[in-house]
User: Fold Very-long-chain enoyl-CoA reductase from Myotis myotis.
Amino acid sequence: MKHYEVEILDAKTREKLCFLDKVEPHATIAEIKNLFTKSHPQWYPARQSLRLDPKGKSLKDEDVLQKLPVGTTATLYFRDLGAQISWVTVFLTEYAGPLFIYLLFYFRVPFIYGHKYDFTSSRHTVVHLACICHSFHYVKRLLETLFVHRFSHGTMPLRNIFKNCTYYWGFAAWMAYYINHPLYTPPTYGAQQVKLALAIFVICQLGNFSIHMALRDLRPAGSKTRKIPYPTKNPFTWLFLLVSCPNYTYEVGSWIGFAIMTQCLPVALFSLVGFIQMTIWAKGKHRSYLKEFRDYPPLRMPIVPFLL
Assistant:
């Protein structure tokens, strides 16, 4: 069996960092990363991006050396991705924050609304309903992170946690301040508006959970297999007939319902910003589906049926 020699250079400076002798032809990029870590312990595998071209795409961990377009002496270029943190940790931090922060405002802890309002309670039913809905949403997200989601990437850059937490925690504090404010006024159309909004919120939360379960069942535990998601017997998954990422469609729908329920501007802005971000993600996933699967359903749009 012919062995490979693998030379690893710094993608920026072209400095030789490592030379691996007698590498098995069927070695994966993940195994090469482990070998590289032995000579450079500061760069653990999750920090490493190995590529065939200094400015090219990162090779996947499961790529096999002999199937790459290289000779028996392969040159790979290394890029440091920076300190990494697990997706589970990021999600738990992102979602636990808003849950806790919102409740501080709901219970009107001291130093928020003035001394005379400390630990008082709102007389408006919608305020209590909004707290239940907000808390339910984030408890659901935390439980899904622990028991439902299967991540294709184990880690993400540590710096992202600060950016993500600023977004989630900041918006949670902003909307909670106004919804739980002693001077808060209920929605214009009263109970009818609240009931309609609650129905939208509950339907979209059930839909979002149904999609997450369908996506989970699509990927066996521990694998990175990608398949085309299709509707199941669950009616909430039928949205797959029209969009590639119905989980995002339902997520945006939930926040629109919450915005109608509370009639609160910060909630509407959070919904808008979330919609813009999720549209970017959905378009990216839609593109990768089209690229990967020739028989991908042509009727599907990324996030909004028939439009977007």
Q: What stands out?
A: The mean pLDDT is 92.
